[in-house]
Amino acid sequence: MSGPNDRPGDTADRIPDGPRSRRVRGGLPSRRLRGGPRAGRVRTGVPLALLLPALLGVAFLTVPLIALLVRTPWQSLPEQLTSAAVWQALRLSLLCATAATAVSLVIGVPLAWLLARVDFPGRGVVRAVVTLPLVLPPVVGGVALLMALGRNGIVGQWLDAWFGITLPFTTAGVVVAEAFVAMPFLVISVEGTLRAADPRYEEAAATLGASRFTAFRRVTLPLIAPGIAAGAVLAWARALGEFGATITFAGNFPGRTQTMPLAVYLALQSDPEAAIALSLVLLAVSIAVLAGLRDRWMSAG
């Protein structure tokens, strides 16, 4: 109870806290307590149980790359990189990866919109099928493509009989194999961006008389452009490094289907220094693309 000499607004209550007590003014605890940390102070220490595994993870990812740089034959590197086979494989890799990314954009963005905006029976099954190439071994994906699009495949036999189109062991087959393994990265990225975007903008466009496709083209696409760009970069990088599905479905023919990963594998069997040089080129291209385009486009989100 307050005494007769207490002033209004300066009431002081005592809350017992063992042998000591802390003073509360106006019914609120003071911001600074004796013997305790200051209010608002944030601990910045890293627990040792988290720091050691984190450092181990960094070392696990960086040591192989450092080893590649250390073992690079720098003296013979110019000679290795100026060979016609290297530039042929690099040009084919860049061309096929870009074409596979374009295919993924054309059919992957509408697929992502369907999964994010339309509620239809079996949507969960379709999403599982779309993401299956992420966990499917690439060689198994190549075998599946052969069974579907090969000369005797369930679709390929009709493509050959009706249109004279043969995909296996061709440059077009490389594009198909790379698109098969790379498109899920684009679909997942775009679908996540669509789910985060506010659908009321599309609804407002529809109330103004815009068709569903016009609203998608004029409203939705600008909103999700950073997600599309990020997904395209990830898909391009995945297509650039594809090996298993490519060698199974398209083979390893220099100048036609031999991409950089296949050239690295072939050179490793006979000329390890050439394999290291090719790996260094592929590493440099991947780092340049991800560090340049991905940082710029993702920062716009």
Automatic annotation (TrEMBL):
Compositional bias per record (Basic and acidic residues), positions renumbered to this chain: 7-20
Record's bilayer topology term: Multi-pass membrane protein
Transmembrane regions: 48-70, 90-116, 128-149, 161-190, 219-237, 274-293
Keywords: Cell membrane, Membrane, Molybdenum, Transmembrane, Transmembrane helix, Transport
Cellular location(s): Cell membrane
Cross-referenced Pfam families: BPD_transp_1
Protein name, as recorded: ABC transporter permease
